[in-house]
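Repro case for the chain-ordering regression, as requested:
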Amino acid sequence: MPVNYSPTTSLLPVKGIRLASLDANIRYKHDRDDLTLIEISESSSVAGVFTQNAFCAAPVTVCRDHLQQEDDIRYLVINAGNANAGTGEEGMTSAQMICAEIADETGTALNSVLPFSTGVIGEQLPYWKIVERVEELVEKLDADNWMTAAKAIMTTDTTMKAVSKTADFDGKTVTITGMTKGAGMIEPNMATMLAYVAIDAEIQQDTLQTILNEAVGCSFNSITVDSDTSTNDSLMLMATGQSGVVLNELNDEDQSTLIELINATCQELAQAIIRDAEGATKFVTINVEAAPDYAYAKEIAYSVARSPLVKTALFASDPNWGRLLMAVGKAPVKDLDVRKISLWLGETLLLENGEPAESYSEELGQIEMNKEEIVIRISLNAGEAEACIWTSDLSHEYVTINAEYRS
Amino acid sequence: MPVNYSPTTSLLPVKGIRLASLDANIRYKHDRDDLTLIEISESSSVAGVFTQNAFCAAPVTVCRDHLQQEDDIRYLVINAGNANAGTGEEGMTSAQMICAEIADETGTALNSVLPFSTGVIGEQLPYWKIVERVEELVEKLDADNWMTAAKAIMTTDTTMKAVSKTADFDGKTVTITGMTKGAGMIEPNMATMLAYVAIDAEIQQDTLQTILNEAVGCSFNSITVDSDTSTNDSLMLMATGQSGVVLNELNDEDQSTLIELINATCQELAQAIIRDAEGATKFVTINVEAAPDYAYAKEIAYSVARSPLVKTALFASDPNWGRLLMAVGKAPVKDLDVRKISLWLGETLLLENGEPAESYSEELGQIEMNKEEIVIRISLNAGEAEACIWTSDLSHEYVTINAEYRS
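-- result from build under test --
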C-alpha cells in the first residue's frame, strides 16, 4: 500500500504524443497490459538519462546508440516483465529486432525507435511476443492512452504513478504529463527504473538535455529504496512544441516557470516511487543543511537513508536516534565535526551541537515516529549547502517481496 | 541460530591475563553477566584499532587518549547493555569515572585503564552501577575466566564467539585466545564491535600495532552484516610475553607462523560474527579475483555483500543471479569492463566473459543456493589482485530483531 498516495484518475494528453498498450503475455499470468508504444511527433526534441550500472541492460545500450546516431526519435517501445539485462549478445539482438519491426511498420528509421524493458533480470526476452503485436499496437495509438500506459509499465508497483500539470504563457497553455514505474532496486544514479515525461512546449535538444540533467539531480537522483541501482533505469523527456510555446522566446520569468514545471513533475514522480516503495510504511525526508557543499550534504543524507538499522527503526516507529547518529557518523566525508551537529526529528530537537538536547523526551520522539511522513533534519553548521533525499523504511514486507518476487 | 557454528566448550588461559565478570544489572532484566574486567600483566604490549565512525562513543575517545598518553595499559573494563554513545560530555565523564575507580582500586595510573561499552546508543550509562562493583570485580580476577567473559560481553549475539590456538617455538608453547561480540551494526571500518585477543608471546608495541593493522584488513575489516558501522567498534590485541617466546628472536619462518596465528584467530572471530549475524541463515563468501588492485576488488565484493536485493535472494535460496550482476555493476569503480567478467555460484558458472554461461541451468543454481555456506566468485580478468568479504543474508528475523531491539 503506498504511503499517502492516491493515483490520479485522469491524465491530460500532450499534443504530439500518442500511446498504445496491450497484453503481450510476456510474463504475467493474469490479464494485464505489459507492452506499450509511445509515438512522438516529428521535429520533437527528446532527451534521456540512463543507469550508471556497468551491467546496463541491452535496451539501455541500444537507446544510447540510437540517441547518438539520430536526432529525430519517433517511437519508444516499453515492455514490463522482463528486463532484457544480463542477456549478452542475444539480448542485444532481441532489442534490435523489436526496433526493426516498429521502424518497418511505421516507415521510420531503425534509429528513430528506442526500446525499454523492465522486470526480471537474467532471462532472455521473448522478443517475438512483441514483434508479432506491433501492427496492432500502432493501430491503437491514441493521445488519450496515458492512463493505460502508466499501468502497463508497472512491475512490483502497487499503484500507477503519473501526473499532469499545465501552465499558461501569453494565453497559450503548455501541458506536461509524466509517468513512472519502480518500487525496488531503487537508488538511481541518474534516473529510476523507467520514467517518461512529455511536454508540448518547444525546447531545443541541447537545452532539453541540460534541463533534464538538472531536474534529475533533485528528483530521481535524490531517492533511495534499497541502495540498489537498477540495470535498466531510464528517464526520457520529450518536448513536442505543439502548444506553440517556445522556451527560447519566453522572458526570463516565464522560462523559469516552464523549467520549474518540468522539475516539479520529475520531483512528484520520484516521490511517488518512494511512496510506493516495496513494503514501505513511511515516507521519509532527510534534509541535510549548513554543509560545506552539496555533494557533502548528499553523502550524509544518503548514509542515513541507506542504513538498514535506521530503516528498521523507522518501520518500528522507534525513536532510536542513536542509529541516526551512527548513520551520520559513518558517512564517507572528511572532517565531520560532530560537536557542531544538530539533529531534529520533525520539530523535535534531538541533538544540539553534538550534545543530547535537554528538551528531548522519548514521548516527543515517539509522537514524531508514529507519523507516516517523517522528516529528519541534520544541520552541520559547517557551510551553506543543503541536500534532500527521500526514502522509505525497511519492513517485513520488503523482505517478503524480494525473497518471493521470482517464485 | 548461528550458521554452522558451535561455540567452543573451553578456552585456554593466556599467561599474564586474568579476567572477571559479574552481573551489574546495567540493562538486562534476566540474570546474566554484563560487566567484565581484563587484567594485563606489567610490561605487556597492547595495540588497538577503533571505529572510524565520526560519532564514536565516549569510551572510544577515552581509549584513544589513554593509549596515546600511556605505554603500560593494565586494565580493560567492558560493559554490555549500554554503548555510552551519543551521550555528549556526560558520557565522557561516566567513562572517566569508571577508569578512575579501577585505577584507584588497583593502584595503577588512570591512563592505564581502557573502557569499552556496547549496547543501546543514546542513553546515559549508569556508571555508578559499575563503580560500586569494581572491588568485587578485582577480587574475582582469574586466568581461567575467558569463557564467562566471552558470554558477558554479548548483546544481541545468540552465541559466545571465542577461540584458542597454540603453536610451539623451540619447545616453548605460545597460546593465543580471543573473544568477540557483535551481530548487527556490522561493517567495521577497522574492527567490529568488540574483540579482545591475547597472546603470551613478546611483541614490541609498534610491531604489535602493525601486525594488528594487517590482521584487521583480512578479518574484521572484511565482513559486513548490514553495512552499518558501529560507534563503538574496538579490537584490542595484547601480548604479554610470558611464554618466553620473543617475536624478534625467532627466525623468519617462525615469525611468519606466529603472525599467522594472530591473523587466523582474528579471521576466525570475524567469521564467527557473520555466522551469528542477526537473522542469518547463510554464511556467504564473496571472492573477487583478477582485479586491478585490492581496493578495486574489495569495492566490488562489498557492493555485492551490501546489496539488500542480493541478501534477500540469498535468504530465499533463489538463484536470481541477475541481482548479482546488478550489484557488481553498481560498484563505485572506474572502467569496469563487463565483457571480461566471469561469475560463479559455488562451482557453477553463471556468466563467462559477460555472456550467460551455456552450461548453466536453474537446477544447478538452485543446488548451490540451497546450501548454508555459499561462495560467490567474481573474476574481472583485469589484473592480479583479489579480495574476500564475508556476509550474511537479509531475513525476516533481521527485520524483527532490529524493529524490536529496544522495546
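Ordering looks correct now. Residues 17-275 of chain B form a domain with the L-amino peptidase D-ALA esterase/amidase fold (CATH 3.60.70.12).
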